[in-house]
Amino acid sequence: MAVRPAYFRDVSDSQWNDWKWQQANRIRHLDVLERVLVLTEDERQAVVQASAKFAMAITPYYASLMDAEDPTCPVRRQAVPVMAELEVAASELEDPLAEDSHMPVPNLTHRYPDRALLYATHNCPVYCRHCNRKRKVGDPTSAPKRDELTEAIDYVRRTPAIRDVLVSGGDPLTMADQRLVAVLSDLRSIPHLEIIRIATRNPVTLPMRITPELTAQLQKFHPLFVNTHFNHEKECTEEAGRALTTLADAGCVVGNQMVLLKGVNDDPHMVRRMNQWLLKHRCRPYYIFQCDSVEGASHFRTPVESGVNIIKALRGWTSGLAVPHYVVDLPNGGGKVPVQPMYLTSHDGTQMKFVNYAGEAYTYEEGAASPAES
Ligand code: SF4
Q: What is the CATH architecture assignment of 100-338?
């Protein structure tokens, strides 16, 4: 159970556990943040300067997971601006995945043949400092308009190749139930659309959003996949666990997409513990993303080797279910490519030499292909 900072001591339990109260009372300005955390001079300056470029918002719940005294706290680093955000490396891009240049209509990216990405809102409970959509997330002037969402859904309707839509944003669960249900109903009425996915960080940053009323609605739209974004075991609270199991009880297939961040989660042992906790709460670790080349995120980016080392520390050492795909999402819209430790050390004719997870060498002899295989 998260421990409330003293600043929120007088808040009643019913307010604290009400997602609308949490959303309405997000920390957005320096004067409140300073009363919750002991800020460094760098953080204090960045709350004013960096957040003018990319808004700051922190739910009281997420703030309660932070170490008030320690600026290296992994939860704090994800949500409190630092001045390094203002440094833009030559290789960094405003839109690193070229999502905006693959938009046939506003608010919908159609890059891969059979799936599309719908931006339902640009609001989130917490604005993650590593967000690869900071160019528009948190900016109310760029929020999708109702008729633009209708146009985007109409595009899906007239494009039979699309069998999978990812409803993202921003965070679609920041929308009121009624509005979200309207979007999901419109999508579900499209006969060729097989699956709907929702990308949401609410189980992490605002777990009280996962109410029985919400899940009663969500279960009308199966098959529905929910992908969330846990990055550190400090986020694995009782409240977060309850949010995940509530989604799973409602029949949602729940997965986690971790973003690899230097000094936050580049520790293989921590990732193993977190992934095991996720599985216990019926959430399957799905991806580890290399931090995208988005502007102002150099301080978060690790060498690719760090991700490979995490997979090495998982594969064979724990359930295969706890081993996600480690991927680099290539800049300029190249798409995701998996990166793996090298287990195949040589391939000579029919003889393949491997090292296993423990570093032991084995030889596998390929059989002659049967007539059916040739
Ligand atoms: S919840 Fe997702 S979209 Fe919102 S700020 Fe975080 S990473 Fe970006």
A: Alpha-Beta Barrel (3.20)
